[in-house]
Amino acid sequence: MKTDKGPATFGHKHLLGIEQLAAEDITLIMETADSFKEISTRTIKKVPALRGKTVINLFYEPSTRTRTSFEIAEKRLSADSINIAVSTSAVVKGESLKDTVKTLMAMQPDIIVMRHQNGGAPHFLTQIVDASVINAGDGIHEHPTQALLDLFTIIEKKQAVKGLVVTIAGDIAHSRVARSNILCLAKMGATVRVAGPPTMIPAGIQKMGARVFHRFEEACQDADVVMMLRLQTERQAEGLFSTLREYNRLWGLSARMLRYAKKDAIVMHPGPMNRGVEIDPEIADGSRSVILDQVENGIAVRMAVLYLLSGGTGDITE
Amino acid sequence: MLVIRGGRVLDPAGGTDRVQNILVDKGKVVRTISPRTQIPREFRGADEIDASGRLVVPGLIDIHVHLREPGHEYKETIATGCAAAAAGGITAVVCMPNTEPPNDNASVTEFMIQKARAHGGVIVHPAGAISAGQKGETLAEMGDMKAAGAVAFTDDGRPVMNAGLMRCALEYAGGLGMPIISHCEDLALKGRGQMNEGANSTRFGLRPIPPQVEEIMVARDIALCELTGARLHLAHVSAEASLRHIRAAKKRRIRVTAETAPHYLWLDDGAVANYDTNTKVNPPLRSQSDVEALRRALRDGTIDAIATDHAPHSPVEKEVEFEVASPGMIGLETSLGLVLRLVNENVITLKRAIALMTSGPARAMGLPGGTLSPGADANVTIIDLDREWTVDPASFASKSRNTPFAGWQLRGRAAATVVRGKVVYRDGI
Lengths: 318, 429
Ligand SMILES: [Zn+2]
Ligand SMILES: [Zn+2]
Known about the structure:
Strand content of chain B: 15-25%
CATH architecture of the largest domain in chain B: Alpha-Beta Barrel
Strand content of chain A: 5-15%
Distance between the termini of chain B: 18 Å
Oligomer: heterodimer
Distance between the termini of chain A: 12 Å
Helix content of chain A: 25-40%
Bound molecules: zinc ion
Radius of gyration of chain A: 20 Å
C-alpha cells in the first residue's frame, strides 16, 4: 500500500536529454544518486536493484571514460551488461543502425545505453526498440548524464546550485556537454555564462539560458564554477581557432585567469583533458579542481538513472 | 474529340475567368465557347467531361521533379512518377538529370522521353546536365541534348562551384537559346551543415546551414547572368536574403526567374524537432520570417513558379539517423492541395496560385502551354475546390512515401488531368 507521501517515481521511459526533464526530475535523480554514493563507500558495493535486467552499452564512438562508468554502475546494480563497441560490431561493414539494433533486440535488453556520433540518434532509437534508451552522448546535441554528474558535483561542493554563477568555456558550438549543462544549470536556477571565440558560439545559445562572453576574463569574473571543455584539435583545420598556443593564451584556464573567479571557485572538466591547451596542468591538479570527484560521482549518478528508468523509486531501501 | 463542359475556366495567361465549354480535337484546344452557345455539330457525340461546379485551368506544370530513372528505380520510375504527377493534377514535368547514369548526353535524354511516351501519361521534359557526369569540370553536350528534347540545363543535386565554368555554361546554353537552372549552394560555407542555422539548430544539436549558403550563389549567378545576357532560373529558393537579390535583378531587367516549393511556404525549421528525416531537405527548411518573405514574394512576382523538387527516397535513405539521411521530400501529389491552402488562407489569390503553377513555370522554362488559348495543347487540370481530403502517403501513386505532410487536412484537389486531349487521371468526375 502506498501512502500519499510515498516515494517519488520517475515519469520517463528514456533519458534522451536534459531538455525533456523538469527540475523535480533532476532533483529526484540527485537524491537517488546521493543514496547510491553512500552505498559505494561500503565494503560490499553491490545492490540487487537491477538483478535479471539486461543493459546493452552500444558505443558508436570510443569512450573509455563514459563506457566504463556506465559499466561499473550496471555491475553495482547487479544488471547483466553487454558492451558493443563500433570496432567489434558489424557496424564497420556498413550495417545500418536499424539493422544493428534489430539484432540486439534478440537479447531482449531492458535498457540500451547509446553513444553515437549523430545528433538525434537516440531519439531515432526509441522509435525502433521497446527498451529504455539512455543517451550517453549524441553528436553535438546532448550528454545528459554528464550534466547530471556535474550538477551532483557542484551541489556536493557548494551545497546548493541556485544563484551560483557557472562559466562554461571553450567550443560551445560543438559541445554536447555544454548544451546539457546549460539546460540543466538554468533549470536548477544557476546563472550560466558561456565563453569562447565567436567561431565557437552557436546561434541563439541565449535562448537556451546562457549569457555569451567573448573575453575569458569577463566571463570568469566572480564565477563560482569554471567548467572547461575539451578542445578538439581538428577544429583548427575548420578555421575555428588559430593555433594551440594562442588558444591557450586566450582561452586556457591558468592561475592568472582563475584569479578573476571567486576565491572558492571550483574548476571542472568533463575529460579527457588537453593539459596545456584548455587547462594548465597546475590548475587541473590543483586544490580547486574537482575533476576526479566528477569521475567518481559519475558512477552514482548513472546508477541513479539506470535505477529510476527501471521503475525504481526515490527510496532505494524498499 | 472532347468537350469539357460547364466548368469555371480560369486561365490567368489568357485572361479568362468565367464558365465556358472547352472544345478539344486532335490533342489541341479548338476554342472555348460560352455555355449558352450551341455545341458545334462536329462535336456532338464527342467524349464529354461534366466539369460543372469545378474549376478548369491550364494543365499544371511542375518544373522541378526527380524521376530517379535510370538508375534509382527502387525510389521512383518514370511511370510511377508520371502517375503521381497525374494524380496531383500535373500535366507536364521537367525532370532533373541526377540519375545514374546522369542525363548528360542525348541518349539518356531520349531514353527518358521514350519511357514517358510509352507510359502515355503526363509530358516529361528532361533537363540535361550542365557538366559531363555532373562533375563540374567540363561542359556536357548541350546541343545534342537540346536536339533530343532537353528544355534546360542544370547540375541540380549539386551546385556548379566553379564560377568560371558557370559563366561558360550560361554563355553556351544562351547560344542555344536555353535556360540554365541553378541549384544555389556554396558547399564550402555549408560544410557539414544539416539544418537551417538558428536557435533551433543549436537546440537540436545539428550543424547549421546559414541562409547565406544560398544567398551567395544566388548573387553570384545573377552577376554571371548579367555578364552573359543568358537566361537564368533559380531552383528551390528558400531564403529571404535570396529574394532581395532576385527582386533587385528583376528591377534591372536581368533575365532571371525563380521558383520555390510548397514546403518552404508551409514549414519552418521547427519541424525538424523530432529528427523526422522527412523534414530533411536541401535547401533546408528555414525560419518563420523566411516563410513569410516567400509568401510575399509569391504575391509581388519575385517568385515566378511553384515547383515541388519532388525527391523520392526509400526507407533505406530515410529510416536512418537524421545526419545520415538523404535530403529531399516528395511533392507531386500534395503540391496543388498545399497551394490551394494558401488560397484558402488568403495568402494569395486563386488566380495568382494558378499562374504560379501554369503560365509562370511555362515562361520560366520556355515551354509551350500554361494557357487554354485556341491552338494550345489540350493540357487541362480540373479541380474540385471543395473536396476535403487527408494526406495519406500509403495511397500515393509515387513509389516513395517521404513526405512531412502526412495527416494534413487539405481542401481542393484534382478531379481530372487531361494531357493532349486524353484523360490520364480521373477522380469522382
Ligand atoms: Zn537542387
Ligand atoms: Zn532538385
